[in-house]
Each structure stands twice: as structure tokens, then as C-alpha cells.
Amino acid sequence: MTTQQSAIYYPAGEIEEFLPQIGRVVEIKDHELAVFRTSDGTIFAAENRNPHPKGGPLAEGIVSGYYLYDPLYDWKIDLNTGLVQAPDQGQVQMYPVKVENGQVWVAL
């Protein structure tokens, strides 16, 4: 556990554990997160819950560029903001991420 600008960061795993373009479920402090690594190595963490009214996990989505494509509802989600792209609407809770010495840290 480490702090940065009053946010508390928790270890989520080693960078090698997160394969490019594939989501991975990580549990931190009773929060189930979907962690994604883009093809350029950027890491994103989101609540592992689809904002669609019927819900569902996000970790099963497919990453392309900085977007997550949900296979259940065919939704496109911006990994930078968590916003669902038009014509659909909604927003995913995103969490700050940092990588230090090969370790991925997520702030809750």
C-alpha cells in the first residue's frame, strides 16, 4: 500500500500478469475490478460491472486501442473516461492506476 496525492494505492499484481488486450479480474478491498493492458502497455482499471441495465462482467471484453468492446451488449467503452460511446449511454467507474518497478497499483 502506498499513497500519492491523498489517494491510497493497492497492489494489483505484476505487470507481466496482465496480458495485452485481455481483461483480468482483481479483487482489492471488497472491490472487484477489471484490469486491462492495451497493446502499447497502458494499464486501466474499472469496476467489473457493465453499466448496461442487465449488468454483467467487463473483464470479458476485448480491448482495441483505448476502447473496451463488450461482447454481451456490443457496447464500446472509452477506457480513459469510462464513458459508453453513442448511441448507447452509461459510464463505468474507472480507478487511477500507476506502475512502479513492474508492480501495478490501483487507487480506490
From TrEMBL:
Pfam families: Rieske_2. Keywords: 2Fe-2S, Iron, Iron-sulfur, Metal-binding, Nitrate assimilation, Oxidoreductase. The keyword Isomerase does not apply. Residues 10-106 form the Rieske domain. GO terms for biological process: nitrate assimilation. One of its GO terms (molecular function) is metal ion binding. Coiled coil: none annotated. The keyword Oxidoreductase applies. This is Nitrite reductase (NAD(P)H) small subunit. It comes from Paenibacillus taichungensis.
